Amino acid sequence: MASLSKGIWSNFSKRSPSLAIKSKKLQEAVLSPNLPHGPVSLKKGASRIRYNSPVGMDEIYPLAYNALQEESAKTYQKIELIEKKIAEVGNDKAKEELEQKRENLLVEAEKNNPEVVYRSMFATNSVDRTQPVYRRFLEEKWKGYNRMLTMQRLETLGVIPDTMPTLNPEVEVNVVFPCNSLSRKIEPGTILSSNVTSRPPSFEIIEFKKSKNDLYTILVVDPDIPDVENDTYKTELLWALKDVPASNDDPIIDAKKLISHPECELVSYIPSVPEKNTGNHRISAWVFRQPDGKKLKAADKAPEREGFDIRKFSADNNLKAIGAHVWRSAWDRNTKNVRRMYGLPNGRIFTRERS
């Protein structure tokens, strides 16, 4: 019976250890053709005991593994040649093209590695996003569902075009509220209680490109504030962050990060506190990647909350939206307490007038 050869996928002198499965038992289960402990997907011990490996798998699996590993080794040889060219070239554009080619080859070299494939499927939240192959797998998964879900909610709820005219998402934006007892990521469009939104959320920005020194602007707005005098609605700015650093290995923007970067909070957070009988308010968070990693110049002065024009602000600062999220809030019995917590006036009560 053929055995797995010790090749490039077991050599970590030039490869990141994050490409391997850390658990020896789990690694053995993934790399053994006869699965001595049964498939990882089977949770019950009895089911694993009853499992029988497909006929011929013991012979085919090592042959396939070794063949793919040899192809990976050839790809790494190409990567070494490109890295030498990158070190020699002086033209920035040519260097950028070579680095992109190197990124693609790094994906090609690892995309068939069983350990990498397993971690990309079952350990999504803990993969090393500095590795191009993991970013590629995450991007494919995002495009397969979460990207479409977010756009569907933004468009059907009218967030597009009521706040920004359109969006071509480049990043995945996840939102978690600290008062959410389960600390789960909020699905776009979810209706949240005033208790959950009473504290500022944390944002996770998942970049699918190489990201190290990027700065971001985040604007959270409520476009459903009643404007009685003009018989329409106006937008209120609930939170504004600028010049916030994030990267592939540090994608979280939360209160802890803002403590060390207090200058990043352009406008402090207030939660959505809808007035009674005004229905569900659409709270949208828009994420902008600042051009060339430069700090905003036109945003030194904090904008007014009431009547905030997000389109004008983004145009004045040359900002292009790369991602967004939306949740909804409505008046509830705790809204009055949240208003008091933030020193806000008592809300109005709207009623339908009889003609």
Write a structural description.
The chain has 2 domains: 136 residues, Methane Monooxygenase Hydroxylase, Chain G, domain 1; 184 residues, PEBP-like (Phosphatidylethanolamine-binding Protein, Alpha-Beta Complex). With 355 residues, it is α+β, with helices and mostly antiparallel strands. A hairpin with a 4-residue loop joins β4 and β5. It has 11 helices and 9 strands.
Summarize the topology.
Elements: H1 24-31, H2 45-50, H3 57-88, H4 92-110, H5 114-122, H6 132-144, H7 146-156, H8 159-162, E1 172-176, E2 191-192, E3 202-206, E4 214-227, E5 232-246, E6 252-253, H9 255-260, E7 265-267, E8 281-289, H10 310-316, E9 321-329, H11 335-341
Parallel strand pairs: 2-9
Antiparallel strand pairs: 1-3, 3-6, 4-5, 4-8, 5-7, 8-9
Helix pairs in contact: 3-4, 4-6, 5-6
InterPro entries: PEBP (IPR008914), PEBP-like_sf (IPR036610), PEBP_euk (IPR035810)
Family: Belongs to the phosphatidylethanolamine-binding protein family. Mitochondrion-specific ribosomal protein mL38 subfamily.
Coiled coil: 65-111
Q: Would you summarize the structure shown here?
A:
With 355 residues, the chain is an alpha+beta fold.
Main attributes of the structure:
alpha+beta; 34% helix; Methane Monooxygenase Hydroxylase, Chain G, domain 1; 355 residues
